[in-house]
Amino acid sequence: MIFIAALIGILIGILINRGADNLPPPPRRSLLETPRCPYCDSPRAPLEQFGIVAFALRRDKCHQCGAPLRLRAPLVEIVTGALFAFLAARYSFNLYLVIICLFTAVLVLITVIDLEHKLILNVVVLPATLLALLASPIVLGGPDAALATWNWNRVVLSLLGLGVGYAMTLAIYFFGILFVRVINRNRKTKINTVAFGLGDVKLAGLLGALIGFPAIFYALIYAILLGGIGAVIALVLRSTQKGKYTAFTAIPYGPYLVLAGGAFLIFGNELLAWIIGP
Ligand SMILES: [Zn+2]
Question: Which of 35, 91, 187, 257 is deepest in the core (most CB within 10 A)?
């Protein structure tokens, strides 16, 4: 069972790679189109679309221009396979497992696109938010109670999570804009990057709908703490490279949101018991 889950995860990973290749503009392409080489724009050969296979068979170069394939493709397939295997080992096989796997795949896709393009796409995050609201009677019920007791009140908790996710991150977003305005008043070279973008707001809404209230409140606080630690590490690393030091460089917050939100999605009960007490 775990082996089959890993295999399905790898196949879904291939789809995630396709999404990460085709969805970000410009130009946005549909998932049905063959991904193209970013260097010569020729369509990928069939083998080149399967990361693990391409690298295993040493077909890891574009057949047209010879540009190397990105290591991202096999990496995403392996990570998704491992995540699915872990989830299959943790939950018994039912609708809950399928839905959690689906949202895990969506969060991996969002993370990959955000890391590569600093973008959180509406075409991914908005349908996923709607789906999270619809699936909340199952997701918020937890793995055991989900199907035994159907409770529509969980939709209210999901909507509340959505609202709190938007409200908290919108507040940070506007604070960020204000902060940049104040800083720019005394600087010759203006900053025009905001650390926390509207994409992050939409992602926080999705996570809120997915893990509900009050989990989203804690998840966002941990995401901000993680992001702060990550920013400090990035600054230290950057300052060791001479001449490349720039303060106030925007880091994508998306991966931190996904990390904290994903942790609450899977370990929510344990984490809340640990924070609030049993
Ligand atoms: Zn090429």
Answer: 257
